[in-house]
Amino acid sequence: MKALKEKIQQDGKMLSESVLKVDAFLNHQIDPQLMKEIGEEFAERFQGQGITKILSIESSGIAPAVMTGLVMDVPVIFARKRKSLTLSDDLYTANVYSYTKHESNDISVSREFINSGDTILIMDDFLANGQAALGLIDIAQQSGAAIAGIGIVIEKGFQPGRKLIQERGIQVESLANIASLKNKEVSFFEEVDS
Ligand code: G4P
Ligand code: NA
Ligand code: NA
């Protein structure tokens, strides 16, 4: 997606050879116009698949997921990382290991909001090692729902996330796929359709 790649080139900061900071439009300050275009792009890429719900994860997955849900006219659920006072006991839970934080944490979704009649689009802001995505897949599978695919805003294609998801037979769509962050430069893998 051209507008997103331009935004990354313009406002992204290379924190290291493997971490891209996008606090200016996605992870802290949010660019609503860009999020709207992202929602339209995902709706187009996943159209005709009978998606009934979008499943994302707090916090940075929520903005692109909501804009996609708006265009697709389906509800958006986000997995919670912390137990909340009002979150029911009746939960789907998955354990997610973070390679960056070297710790694992449970993520949860109320059973009230996903069931075997649903076809789910899973979404997140980043795909790196894929552990959050695998946790969301786990939760969707516990519910018995079908998984239409995974929509990712920024993929770090030099990390193994995509492979782990595709091994499970699940379609991955990312709107910007980073090949390298070396030498303080962002380079992207070419896309067929942009
Ligand atoms: P992984 O298995 O998907 O690689 O996750 P990992 O634990 O390594 O990443 C921890 C957090 O950092 C996640 O967000 C993930 O989306 C994000 N992340 C991974 N690589 C990058 C990167 O290069 N740039 C940025 N900006 N984020 C990255 P989180 O902790 O769940 O935070 P949030 O969703 O509340 O923002
Ligand atoms: Na995230
Ligand atoms: Na994040």
Describe this structure in words.
The protein has 194 residues and is α/β, with parallel strands linked by helices. It has 5 helices and 10 strands, in the order H-E-E-H-E-H-E-E-E-E-H-E-H-E-E. Strands 4-3-7-8-9-10 form a 6-stranded mixed β-sheet, with helices on both faces. It has a two-stranded antiparallel ribbon with strand order 1-2. Strands 5-6 form a two-stranded antiparallel sheet. Bound molecules: guanosine-5',3'-tetraphosphate (G4P) and sodium ion (2 copies). The site of one sodium ion has 4 residues, from strand 7.
Looking at this protein, list some descriptive labels.
194 residues; alpha/beta; six-stranded mixed β-sheet; two-stranded antiparallel ribbon; 5 helices; globular; binds guanosine-5',3'-tetraphosphate; binds sodium ion; glycosyltransferase; glycosyltransferase activity
Radius of gyration: 16 Å
How much of the sequence lies in strands comes to 25-35%
Instruction: Assign a percent range to the helix content.
Output: 25-40%
- The computed structural class is alpha/beta
Q: How far do the termini sit from each other? A: 6 Å
Report the bound ligands by name, code or SMILES. Answer: guanosine-5',3'-tetraphosphate, sodium ion
The stretches of 5 or more residues where confidence is low (pLDDT under 50) are none
User: How many strand segments?
Assistant: 10
Mean pLDDT: 95
Identify the overall geometry.
globular
Q: What composes the largest sheet?
A: 6 strands, mixed
Strand order of the largest sheet: 4-3-7-8-9-10
User: What is the ordering of alpha helices and beta strands?
Assistant: HEEHEHEEEEHEHEE
